[in-house]
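2024-03-11 09:14:02 INFO worker-7 job=invfold-0412 stage=load source=structure_tokens
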């Protein structure tokens, strides 16, 4: 959608069609409003420090509809020995930029804290090849900080296994910090504080549409040319022709001709579509593994929850052997997610390390999530609202080798005139990156035709 929209910005008279396999737009983004709850089935917010999603919202007149996160509780919790504790203030995914909160946290032992503080004296790695997030983190911060803080935080972002995730592909900023400053702690001290902590900033570090992600999807769709969107139109074949591309739609077997094509499906669908054209390209796309997860959203009366819920959510380290990856306190994070006397909690289950749990039947998922919330937050009784959304093979995992693999994809694409790609399997899974990848693909199309797309 970002690609289609950008193309119409660049070439307002372009004839374009957006083929969508399902009966609705938005892919992973899907908001449900029911019984006074507003539930996100997939992404529930986006980061503003990567500019592309916010920029798009501004350009389409949507920025007034973006909510800031609740300024009273901008922190999260982590589980330790079955109890939940605040993540030390200033701990940014992989490194601390404040020492006081680290010294006082019960999450790390005295030895773990010492080892973390020693980070500034650990020499930089001389080898220039990629390494896993886990290896980088253990090497610089020590095993305990990795297991107790970094692993659950990364697990929460990528639903992934940091032992396999590539540092350079997922968190290049930290590799660069080591390279430039020789230490994460020194590097973090030298940079300005993020927008989140500067009071009075127009946007918080994360924002969400007040009426949910589907309202953003609708706002973008509303800016596309009428008749340009075809739902229930799964592209089944892509054929190169002398003039460009022939697109075949599965159900109708209808074919249409275009000068250029942007493939913005998930990687597996792109691999299938490109297999007859280029087996190397298809192989490279097929190599990208994906994790599955299920989100169980539970609504409770506020009085049913004994924990004060004075944060945005809780993440669970693997060594705690819990059956959930994380729980997000949706109605605390953003206004308007639950009726006044209720709370909405979204529980993430599965991911790369517990795929069997994501696939449990619905009743078992609901029980599992409710039991975990009982243990962790002291939730009593049955939820007054439930919702389950499943994401099968939906989260690309940027394993070691991903950068080389995406280079191979880019190289192979060069051999196919006017064929472009976008999506979360290339250069970032977050919404801003996905939007950026779509917009860049549209810009490449416009550049390839230099105004001749009529
Ligand atoms: C559970 C979950 C929570 C997340 N939370 C966040 C978050 O809070 N913040 C954030 O920034 N990011 C988040 N992400 C990541 C982000 O939402 C996704 O990476 C992003 O939305 C993916 O967008 P996409 O367009 O690449 O793919 P998709 O959303 O998967 O869209 C691909 C589309 O292609 C269609 N399609 C597939 N095959 C065909 C075909 N043959 N023909 C036509 N159409 C086809 C599909 O139906 C689909 O609509 C989350 C992801 C998941 C799974």
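2024-03-11 09:14:09 INFO worker-7 stage=emit residues=454
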């Amino acid at each position: 959608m970002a690609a289609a929209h950008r193309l119409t910005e660049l070439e307002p008279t372009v004839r374009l069609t957006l083929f969508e396999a399902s009966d609705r737009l938005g892919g992973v983004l899907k908001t449900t409003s029911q019984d006074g709850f507003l539930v996100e089935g997939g992404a529930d917010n986006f980061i503003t420090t990567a500019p592309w999603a916010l920029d798009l919202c501004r350009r389409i007149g949507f920025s007034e509809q973006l909510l800031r996160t609740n300024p009273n509780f901008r922190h999260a919790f982590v589980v330790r020995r079955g109890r939940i504790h605040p993540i030390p203030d200033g701990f940014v995914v992989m490194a601390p930029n404040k020492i006081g909160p680290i010294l006082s946290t019960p999450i790390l032992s005295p030895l773990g804290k010492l080892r973390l503080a020693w980070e500034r004296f650990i020499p930089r790695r001389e080898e220039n090849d990629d390494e896993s997030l886990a290896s980088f983190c253990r090497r610089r911060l020590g095993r305990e900080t990795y297991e107790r803080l970094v692993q659950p935080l990364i697990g929460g972002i990528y639903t992934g296994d940091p032992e396999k995730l590539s540092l350079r592909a997922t968190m290049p900023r930290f590799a660069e910090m080591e390279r430039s400053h020789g230490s994460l702690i020194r590097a973090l001290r030298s940079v300005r504080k993020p927008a989140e902590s500067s009071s009075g900033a127009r946007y918080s570090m994360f924002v969400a549409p007040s009426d949910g992600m589907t309202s953003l999807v609708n706002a973008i769709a509303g800016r596309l040319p009428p008749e340009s969107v075809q739902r229930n139109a799964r592209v089944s074949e892509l054929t190169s022709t002398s003039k460009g591309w022939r697109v075949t739609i599965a159900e109708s077997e209808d074919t249409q001709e275009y000068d250029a094509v942007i493939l913005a499906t998930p990687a597996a669908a792109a691999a299938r579509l490109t297999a007859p054209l280029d087996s190397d390209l298809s192989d490279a796309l097929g190599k990208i593994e994906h994790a599955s997860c299920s989100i169980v959203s539970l609504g409770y009366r506020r009085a049913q929850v004994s924990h004060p819920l004075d944060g945005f959510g809780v993440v669970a380290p693997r060594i705690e052997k819990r059956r959930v990856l994380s729980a997000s306190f949706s109605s605390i994070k953003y206004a308007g997610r639950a009726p006044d006397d209720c709370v909405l909690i979204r529980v993430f289950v599965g991911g790369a390390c517990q795929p069997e749990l994501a696939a449990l039947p619905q009743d078992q998922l609901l029980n599992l999530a409710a039991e975990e919330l009982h243990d962790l937050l002291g939730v009593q009784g049955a939820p007054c609202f439930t919702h389950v959304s499943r994401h099968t093979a939906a989260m690309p995992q940027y394993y070691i080798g991903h950068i080389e693999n995406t280079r191979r994809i880019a190289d192979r694409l060069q051999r196919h005139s006017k064929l472009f790609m976008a999506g979360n399997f290339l250069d970032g899974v977050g919404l801003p990156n996905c939007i950026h990848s779509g917009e860049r693909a549209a810009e490449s199309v416009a550049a390839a035709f230099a105004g001749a797309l009529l």
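2024-03-11 09:14:09 INFO worker-7 stage=report msg="The longest strand covers residues 290-301."
2024-03-11 09:14:10 INFO worker-7 job finished
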